[in-house]
Amino acid sequence: MVVTSEYPVGSARIIQKIENRGAKCRYDRCTPALAAEVSLLAAMLGSLDEAQDVLGKRGVELDTKTVRLIAYRYAARARLEQQIESTEFDESVSGRRVVISTDGGRIRLRETKRGPKTKKGRRRYTGARREPKVLIIYVVDAEGKREASFAPVIDATLKGPDAVFALLRSYLQRLRITQADQVLLIADGAPWIWNRVPLLVQALGLDAEQVHELLDFYHAAEHLGKVAALRKDWSAKVRSRWRNQQRRLLLRGEVERVIAAVRDICRGRNSKAIRTHRDYFIKNQSRMAYAKLMALKLPIGSGAIESTVRRVVNLRLKGASIFWCQAGAEAILLLRSYYKAGRWNLLKRMATSHLAMLES
């Protein structure tokens, strides 16, 4: 997993547009401060039109297209600097307890369809649904609460699972993750995550004693609810009692008893569906050490990444009749991630570094 090979820089088409408009200077015919402000508003507000409106009220008259080009170019420079890996974090995770999580969101991309144009001369397109992969790295204290002194690391990409794990590796190496006290990787049961975790741990050079892998407890509990719902011959009270009993067993670390309980009711017309849930618990049994993690005062839920997906993706890039080109979505995902993480100053350093400017 190499960042430079898995994550090619933004859109050559966008950069060519800027050059065709004569914006060949370093900051696209505006000062570094204005470029940063335009990009921040593009990330912060609900749309580029809103960013243009706010800029206009501040006396900066730019059309929406110019706002878009400045923001996208700013993001491309920051991503390039990230690939060069010359920007260092001001802090490290030495001696701290680190939590790592990743998950996917959902947006729609505008992809041109082949064939004749419409009667009005417009190109036909499809609104393909794509899953941006989002990551978060944060630190918790001795009581398991997030440390306010450490701003989380948040990023997102549409490039797929290998790309998001390449980003994770890059960030964790720069944070000197091998010096951490404990490292917790927590996520839902998605195979694209857990199939890549061993390679990530190996590439980072982490000791087995440092690392904990945990399946989000609330996803596991959700599967228990689905199993109970498949027993149509049970009353609502019986389903609730069975589900709560299995949840308590999970929290006590008695996963074998939970698997046995699911196996015992695996009969009838819904037996095939129940077996699927049983296999889910068997496959993830080693990642269900909830009693151990609670004793260590570490989180057992992945609410942090769920919230991050909502704040970064859903509240900015997802909505009725919203379609993105891939380059634009990548740019806003990067800008929005650093803004929501509270690391905007770091992104400014990345976007205005000499190496990024020379390569852009």
Describe this structure in words.
The relative contact order is 0.17. Helix 9 packs antiparallel against helix 10, helix 10 packs antiparallel against helix 11 and helix 14 crosses helix 15 (326-341). The two termini are 24 Å apart. The chain is α/β, with parallel strands linked by helices and 360 residues long. It has a five-stranded mixed β-sheet with strand order 5-4-1-6-7, sandwiched between helices. The protein has a two-stranded antiparallel sheet with strand order 2-3. 52% of the residues lie in helices and 12% in strands. Residues 1-11 and 14-25 have low confidence and may be disordered. It contains 17 helices and seven strands. The protein has three domains: 3-87 and 343-359, no CATH class; 97-215 and 301-323, Nucleotidyltransferase, domain 5, CATH 3.30.420; 218-290, no CATH class.
CATH architecture of the largest domain: 2-Layer Sandwich
Percentage of residues assigned to helices:
40-55%
User: Into which percentage range does the β-strand content fall?
Assistant: 5-15%
Give the termini distance in whole angstroms: 24 Å
The coarse silhouette is globular
Which residues form runs of ≥5 with pLDDT under 50?
Answer: 1-11, 14-25
Indicate the mean pLDDT.
Answer: 89
Oligomer: single chain
Task: Kindly give the count of domains.
Answer: 3
Total strands: 7
Order of helices and strands: HHHHHEEEEEHEHHEHHHHHHHHH
User: What Rg is obtained from the alpha carbons, in whole angstroms?
Assistant: 23 Å
- CATH topology of the largest domain: the name is Nucleotidyltransferase, domain 5
CATH class of the largest domain: Alpha Beta
**Major sheet size, sense and barrel closure:** 5 strands, mixed
Counting helices, strands and paired strands, the structural category is alpha/beta
Total of helices? 17
- Strand order, main sheet: write it out: 5-4-1-6-7
